[in-house]
Amino acid sequence: MVVAKVDNALRLSAVDRKATFLGLVIGQPLANARAMLPALTVVAANEPDDLKLLTRIADWCDRFTPHVALDGPRGLLLNVTGAAHLFGGEQALLDRIRESLKAQGLAVRGAMAGTAVAARAFARYRDGAVIEPGEEAQMMAPLPVAALNLDHITTHAFRRAGLKTVGQVASRKRAEMTARFGTGMVAILDQALGKSTQPLSPRLPVPDYWKEQGFAEPIATEEVIRATLRSLATALADVLEKRGEGARRLEAVFFRADGALRRIAIDMGVPTREPAVIERLFREKLDTLADPLDPGFGFDLIRLSASRVERAQGEVADFDASIHEKADIGFLVDRLATRFGSQCILAFQPNDTHIPEAAWLAVPAQYVQAAKLPWKKLRAPGDAPRRPLRLFTRPEPVTLLTALEGSQHLRWRKVQHAVAQCEGPERITMEWWRHETPQPARDYFRLEDGEGRRYWLYRAGVPPQWFLHGVFA
Amino acid sequence: MHSHTIAALRASLARPGLEQAAVRLPLGHAAADLCLKGGLERGALHEVFAGPGHEAAATGFTAGLAARVAARKRLLWIRQDFSALEFGELSATGFLEFGIDPERLLLLCVADAAGALRAAHDALSCAALGAVVIEIAGRPKILDLMASRRLTLASAQKTVTTFLLRFNAEPQASTAETRWLVRAAASPTQAENWGHPVFKAGLVRNRHGRTGEWVMEWSCDEGLFKEADRGAVVSAPSNRPVAAARQAANR
After folding, report:
1. Same domain, A187 and A56
2. Which residues of A touch B107 (CB under 8 A)?
3. What is the pLDDT of residue B215?
4. Which of B197, B232, B228 lies closest to B99 in space, CA to CA?
5. CB-based contact (8 Å) between A31 and chain B?
6. Which of A105, A364, B151, B162 is least enclosed by beta carbons within 10 angstroms?
7. Of B108, B197, B221, which has the smallest distance from its Cβ to A473's Cβ?
8. Searching chain A, which residue's CA lies closest to the CA of residue B119?
9. Is residue A372 part of a domain?
10. Domain total in chain A
11. A390 and B221: CB-CB below 8 Å?
12. ipTM score of the complex?
């Protein structure tokens, strides 16, 4: 028996079968329960761990359908529309889920019905039932009002009004109900009776297409895993090709025989459906995983799913080599992104501002779009570059010293450089419309030292401070 | 492809003299091109060592070489994560001003030298790429003779040129085609228009020719190297014996 603190009192939050038999119910204060049965075994509730366990069960349930939603503290809702026939029908699927979970040492109640609310109610009061569509209202009628899973106050109000079963509630006029309890309650009642439905919000994004391969005997060797991925990729490519589409994201899900599950995803810059490309990217990813794929006792199901599907032009026979070149570069970018992460391979884009450090953006090359702005050169033809080749992200504070004989020195990183030439200032004012407090304008100078090194410095603030912002080639 | 076409291709490949005729791209600097027998070899490994404190100059020099060799193709620049803090981030506007279209540039940030070499091998298998620049600071153990041999072979396979840009390091044994030692050179004094990228570039190793040292200026408008216009040549390359230059390099 488990207790948790609710409304500042210790109340029972979960009870096992024996305790139910002895008359204990969820929500009862612990003191009352102790008074009834002094020899209770009490365990404190651990909600985070419960949620973890529920998430793992949900992961395991992913093998039946991708539409798995968490329901409250101890429930799971599965939308098995169109998936049941793969497991021998609805009753067979429900029995299989219940038996497998029981075999894993869990206490399970389950039912199948046309709507989530109805399924939840039947799971509690008609364990193992499969309700055919249209039978909900009839089957629901004898259940107590609590089956609707309404809030405590509404349920209590029904009980005081003498409405003990769902059938009694349903027999009342709608207008009266709406006036007394609001539209929310009536909507739930309609769903419970199978008159209206509400979609589940799945726990994970549902992929657009997927292909899977189950194994009677769990597989563990690398070659078989790769061969499976290849055949799944080929099957998936067929589907995508028929629809003229390609996927930007592919996810391989490995279901281990002991219930553990591993998801590995790859992203692509352009919609792709080439099995060879997909297989190669997965091989790259599997090779570079920080924690390698652990087959344990083997995988009994591997699923490959495609999401972020976009329209992809077919392989046009083209005479222009530059298209091939672009595709080759795209593939290289995907490979490097798979290995190092998409934030590491960058391409440059112009940005519409005159602030030197913000005048360009380094964006992930996988997601780069054709630039809408042109690159604007600052120098006139024949002039020296006006912007340095290497720019310090954080301008480094420097000091300018004037020696006795009038020569100037730049002190940067504890080294003095004699100033040979200097040009400036180029005043750059900050964008006042972006900052709450006004930023000081910067006066930029180009400097050359005795050895020919060229620096880009600025002076800002009151009293003026010098910063080194970049170095020219 | 038909078997007779392959046979014809094989025959043309087997023709003597063809293997020597690797594609070389002129830098634009006459004396240097003479030493390089027409220009920098494509599909080979070239090393650029920055003089201490002259990392920006070496960056510019390598960017210029890579842009020349890559022609219109794209460049991949591989750098280590800390390099942006230590030597400054590569600036797109800086490249634009330098005369290289930033759209041609791909930047890859890696954690260490091992990652950089791995990425370079991936990139060298992509023939659509013009050049790969690997920027490495210090002397990582992994960058040995074996690594340079592997880079050379990979470059030759798909004719993607590799540039190894080294900061804070001394030259060591390698299979590089050329090795350059680069420092910044002073602009002409009292000139109105100063600050063009001028380099004191020492060719300290050249597998197929002589070595030398020149002061080169990168022309941002034309996109090529040329003689610095003040006429101050540091050393006359044609008179200088190769052996002496080699000694200077090994010193």
Report:
1. yes
2. 345-348, 362
3. 93
4. B197
5. no
6. A105
7. B197
8. A336
9. no
10. 4
11. no
12. 0.81
Shared domain for A256 and A332, answered yes or no, is: yes
Give pLDDT, residue A149. 83
Question: Residue A385: is the preceding peptide bond cis (ω within 30°)?
Answer: no
A459 found inside a domain = yes
Whether residue A143 is found in the same domain as residue A56? yes
Residues A272 and A312 in one domain: yes
CB-based contact, A359 to chain B, within 8 Å: yes
Spell out which residues of chain A touch residue B63, defining contact as CB-CB under 8 Å. Answer: 389, 473
Which residues 380-409 in chain A show a CB within 8 A of chain B? Answer: 381-394
| CB-CB under 8 Å, B53 with A329 | no
Q: Are residues A188 and A81 in the same domain?
A: yes
In a domain, A178, yes or no: yes
300-329 in chain A: CB under 8 A from chain B = 324-326, 328-329
B74 with A329: Cβ contact below 8 A: yes
Chain A interface test: which of B55, B76, B87, B97 (most A C-beta within 10 Å)? B97
Weakly modelled stretches of chain A, pLDDT under 70: 1-3, 5-7, 313-322
User: Do A59 and A175 fall within a single domain?
Assistant: yes
Please enumerate, as own/partner, the contacts of A288-296 that have beta carbons within 8 Å and a separation of 24 or more.
A288/A338, A288/A339, A289/A264, A293/A225, A293/A254, A293/A262, A293/A264, A294/A262, A295/A218, A295/A219, A295/A220, A295/A221, A295/A225, A295/A254, A295/A256, A296/A220, A296/A256, A296/A257, A296/A258, A296/A260
| Backbone CA torsion sign across B126, B127, B131, B137 | positive
CB contact under 8 A, A423 and B194: yes
Q: Which chain A residue shows the shortest CA-CA distance from B123?
A: A332
Instruction: Please write the tens of the pLDDT for every residue from A221-249.
Output: 888 888 999 999 999 999 988 888 888 89
Domain boundaries B28-250, corresponding CATH code: 3.40.50.300
Contact A346 B189 (CB under 8 A): no
**Residue B250: predicted pLDDT:** 54
Q: Do residue A128 and residue A188 come from a single domain?
A: yes
CA distance B175 to chain A (A): 26
Q: Do B94 and A470 touch (CB under 8 A)?
A: yes
Q: Which class for B75: exposed (0-12), middle (13-18), buried (19 or more C-beta within 10 A)?
A: buried
Residue A220 shares a structural domain with residue A333 = yes
Residue numbers of the domain that contains A453: 390-472
Please tell me the distance from the alpha carbon of residue A156 to that of residue A146, in angstroms, as a whole number: 9
- Chain A positions touching B197 (Cβ under 8 A) are 384-385, 472-473
Local confidence pLDDT in tens for the 251 residues of chain B: 566 777 766 766 655 444 444 588 899 999 999 999 888 999 999 999 999 999 999 999 999 999 999 888 999 999 999 999 999 999 999 999 999 999 999 999 999 999 999 999 989 989 899 999 999 999 999 999 999 999 999 999 988 999 999 999 999 999 999 999 999 998 877 667 888 899 999 999 999 889 999 999 999 998 899 888 654 444 444 444 444 545 555 55
Task: State the residue for tokens 């440059």.
Answer: A348
Q: Residue A280 belongs to a domain with what CATH number? A: 3.30.1490.100
